[in-house]
Amino acid sequence: MKNAKVSLLAAATLLALGSSAAMAETEFKFGGYVKADVMFSDYSNGAPDSGNLSRQFYVPGTIYGTPGNGEQVVDFQARESRFNFKTVTDLDGHKLTGFIELDFMTHSDGNERVSNSYSPRIRHAFVSFDNWTVGQTWTTFMNPGSLPENLDFVGAAEGTPFVRQTQVRYTNGGFQFALENPETTVTPNGGGSRITSGSGIVPDFVARYNFKTQGGAKFTLAGIARQLNLEKGGIDSQTMGYGLNFTGVIPVGSDDLKFSATAGDGLGRYMALNYANAGVLDADGDIETISSYGGFASYRHWWNDKWRSSFTLSGFKADNDVALTGGVVNEESYSGYVNLLYSPVKPLTVGVEYMYAENTKQNGDKGELNRVIFSVKYVL
Fold first, then answer.
1. What is the chain's alpha carbon radius of gyration, rounded to the nearest angstrom?
2. How far is CA 50 from the centre of its chain?
3. Which of 367, 378, 375, 332 is nearest to 71 (CA)?
4. Cα-flanking dihedrals φ and ψ of residue 167, to 5°?
């Protein structure tokens, strides 16, 4: 990141915090990176159409294929490139921080025919004051520091919680407590299109503890409690969901081992990019939670100070009650990755990665994806 320190006069500080502050020093940081990917993909059942989310990065549940389409495709993109802006102000011993970050992923409002123009989207937008953080950022149930160094946009997608959302978080030492935005995803009785509900006024609650050992290993243990709520179409049902997540980053000489393990009832969208729903409706219109578990392990080896590789395995399974969900629902998802990365200078990384993924529905239908990614990344 590029840094610039500026002393602000009282007038600027007054606008932010009122008349009690006379002068403050604010540090401005601009950051992000430029990343270009070339992806050669082989879909077992026919490739999704150009612009489909699966053509941007691996999303469990999107690789079952489109019959009639060719199986092999190539995609060039720079959509993962991002920009962020951060300010840190010292106010009489209190730390005030603002952060916003944008990238260009997931949107379908551009095309590859002429200009490849895609709208920016908010990744993070939050303010923190001492122990408090308010705004959109990673869910407290997730530890982004444990994610593997993969060229795929998420990497180990089915094995980790992966959510960004607005929240109010309090941090004290290694403890974190958060109230976060609720959203319920439910399977209709007998199967069918996902029902998404924003009903209810009970936030998702997350508690987390971060700790490390004398040997330098870092661990997190997080728990979540959430109300699943559906009030639409004549249905009015509520139930509770729970989950636990344990992650670690363990140094092994100059190498490191990263892992994550998650299990719960009613986790739904928190795991595997919502590969499975949080619950299913029974014949009476009541929500029954769906149990799920997943995890990943990734070993990163440094061949020397410029070359490195990561070896990653990831998996997820949902315990569907077929009598309620039917057979055409997602059940299992697995993926594996191996890459070789080279950084001739610290800000620049070029690399190649091979990944294989397999998704299986409850009725046994499968989709497979073989993908080779070539990437160039320059950190601003």
1. 22
2. 23
3. 367
4. -160, 170
Give the span between the Cα atoms of 262 and 247, in whole angstroms: 9
CA atoms within 13 A on the CB side of 78: 11
The CATH code of the domain that includes 327 is 2.40.160.10
| Helix segments in the chain, DSSP class H | 10-17, 322-325
From first to last of the 380 residues of the chain, give the pLDDT tens digit: 444 444 433 334 434 455 444 357 899 999 999 999 999 999 999 999 988 899 999 999 999 988 899 999 999 999 999 999 999 999 988 999 999 999 999 877 778 888 888 899 999 999 999 999 999 999 999 999 999 999 999 989 999 999 999 999 999 999 999 999 999 999 999 999 999 998 889 999 999 999 999 999 999 999 999 999 999 988 999 999 999 999 999 999 999 999 999 999 999 999 999 999 999 999 999 999 999 999 999 999 999 999 999 999 999 999 999 999 999 999 999 999 999 999 999 999 999 999 999 999 999 999 999 999 999 999 99
Q: What is residue 9's DSSP assignment?
A: P
Place of tokens 């050992």: 213
Structure token digits, residue 6:
């500026």
Asked if 248 and 212 count as a contact pair (C-beta separation under 8 A), the reply is: no
What's the gap between Cα 227 and its chain centre?
21
Place of tokens 């670690």: 248
Q: Quote the domain boundaries for residue 87.
A: 2-379
DSSP 8-state class, residue 12 = H
Is residue 286 within 8 A of residue 279, CB to CB? The reply is no
Q: Which neighbouring-strand residues pair with 280?
A: 187, 288
Q: Is the pTM of this model over 0.85?
A: yes
Query: Can you read off the two tokens belonging to residue 267?
Result: 């986790």
Report the number of distinct structural domains present in the chain. Answer: 1
Question: Are 72 and 47 a contacting pair, CB within 8 Å?
Answer: yes
Sign of the CA dihedral running 130, 136, 142, 146:
negative
Other C-beta atoms lying within 10 Å of the C-beta of residue 222: 23
